[in-house]
Each structure stands twice: as C-alpha cells, then as structure tokens.
Write a structure and sequence with these properties.
It is built from no helices and 11 strands. The protein is mainly beta and about 120 residues long. It starts with a strand and ends with a strand. The relative contact order is 0.32.
Length: about 120
C-alpha cells in the first residue's frame, strides 16, 4: 500500500506561484509512475502532469505546459508540482496519484493510489 499526502495548496492571485508536494509512505516511490490531476467544481477530474518512475521525462496537459513543472525527489519519497503564472482557471482541488509501472499514464483509471487532495484557488 502507498499512502499519499498532498500539501502546499492555498489562495494566490493570478500570476502568482505555488508549489505542491506529495509525500508518500508505505512504499518507496521509485517503482511508481506519478501523476498530478485536478478537479474543478462541476467538472471531471483531469490530467495535469505525469512522470514515469525513471524520472527521465515529464508530460503535461496543454493547458499547463510551460507554466507547471513536475519533479520527484527519490531521497525524500516526494513528488512536487511547481505552478507558475497561475490563472483563475487553474482553480481546483489537486490530487497526486501513483501507479506501479514503467511508463507514464494520463488516464485516472490507470492509477491505483490517490491522495486526499489540496485546494488551489487563484483569484483574478
């Protein structure tokens, strides 16, 4: 079992930055591909960013490309999402997720473990 806990959300003005963290316990994340998803009120959960267990490449939704950066710290067993140039449309609950596998995954159903989510609110 993998337990994931997100932190770092909050209220920020448009154009600002936040750094989300996803700390894992129970298992080392080095065997897991990781992803960040978000869900806004009344909308479906959507993929934001992903990184395979090797950490060699990163993948982003078009809506966040160039603004968000996913990274992982194997020593700290933690995954991060650096969010810059935030927009009001980035407002959502952000979730990190883990799946055992060698590739990277965009679909939420590919992930076995989820955190409880952290709220990000961007004011205009």
């Amino acid at each position: 079992q993998v337990q994931l806990v997100e932190s770092g959300g909050g209220l920020v003005q448009a154009g600002g930055s936040l750094r989300l963290s996803c700390a894992a316990s129970g298992r080392t994340l080095s065997s897991y591909a990781m992803g960040w998803f978000r869900q806004a009120p009344g909308k479906e959960r959507e993929f934001v960013a992903g990184v395979p267990r090797s950490g060699g490449s990163t993948y982003y939704a078009d809506s966040v490309k160039g603004r968000f950066t996913i990274s992982r710290d194997y020593a700290k067993n933690t995954v991060f999402l650096q969010m810059n140039s935030l927009k009001p449309e980035d407002t959502a609950v952000y979730y990190c997720a883990a799946t055992y596998g060698v590739g990277w995954y965009r679909a939420s159903y590919d992930y076995q473990y989820w955190g409880q989510g952290t709220q990000v609110t961007v004011s205009s």
